[in-house]
Amino acid sequence: MRPTAFLLVFIILVSFLAAPAQQLYAQEIDDLGFDLPSLEIGLEGGEEDGDLSLAMQLIFLITILALAPGIMLMVTSFTRIIVVLTFVGRALSLQEMPPRQVMVSLAIFMTFFIMAPTISEMNERAFQPYLAGELGQMEALSEAAVPLRAFMLQNTQEKDLAFFMSASDLPRPETRDDVPIWVIIPAFMLSELSRGFVMGVLLFIPFVVIDMVTASVLMSMGMMMLPPVMISLPFKIMLFVLVDGWTIVADSVIQTYGV
Fold first, then answer.
1. What is the overall mean pLDDT for the chain?
2. Residue 133 — left, alpha, or beta (φ > 0 → left; ψ -120 to 50 → alpha)?
3. Per-residue pLDDT, 170
4. Do residues 232 and 210 touch, judged by C-beta distance below 8 A?
5. Is the pLDDT of residue 182 over 70?
6. pLDDT given for residue 54 in this prediction
7. Containing H/E element for 84?
8. Could you tell me the CA-to-CA distances from 227 to 69, 212, 231 in Å, in that order?
9. Could you tell me if 165 and 148 are in contact, meaning their C-beta atoms sit under 8 angstroms apart?
10. Taking phi first (over 0 means left), then psi (-120 to 50 degrees means alpha), and beta for anything else, what does residue 36 get?
């Protein structure tokens, strides 16, 4: 069971079990003269039309926190970045260096860097007006989706978008703004995977050449039992360091998003 689901079940059980105890000790608490604060959670509507109640807001917030990793994978540049970084590690024939946690952390912060303009626009269009009381909750969500939708459409290939539109049996949209968000997200993810693999293959080619040259030299020397990867590994690392490989990889990924 997921931790969030376990927490919700635990809260519900505690609420039911605490009801008899509250009735049992209510009189004793009154006799002691303590005024305990009370908390009421209901499903009443919000202060404005379209707003959610406190309980629904809490449930919505917990759900968002539980789905945050998946949302980050679906609608941001994280997928392409982590695919490219994984290809780099495999091309260098490195097992656990750099550690997986370092690669994921680098991908996360590069994602924040690339998504910064989109996040700033979402803040200006939706979050700040919502805090100022100019927009309701549903209106703020609709406004926040506009820049994110534009980012995904900008980085989605036409063939992937056409594939999911055809698979969903929807009529041909007149403009991209007519495409539903639930069609854009899988098309965007498929495009990110495709472009990530293309970049990974291009990064792989120089290191494959080094492996082939090393294997040819070893065979010509009659050292066929010696693994070529063991000999080529220092040369690949040296080449990667001399050309400032990490900066080149980061710059290549960022340039594909036009940042």
1. 75
2. left
3. 75
4. yes
5. yes
6. 63
7. helix 78-91
8. 40, 12, 7
9. no
10. beta
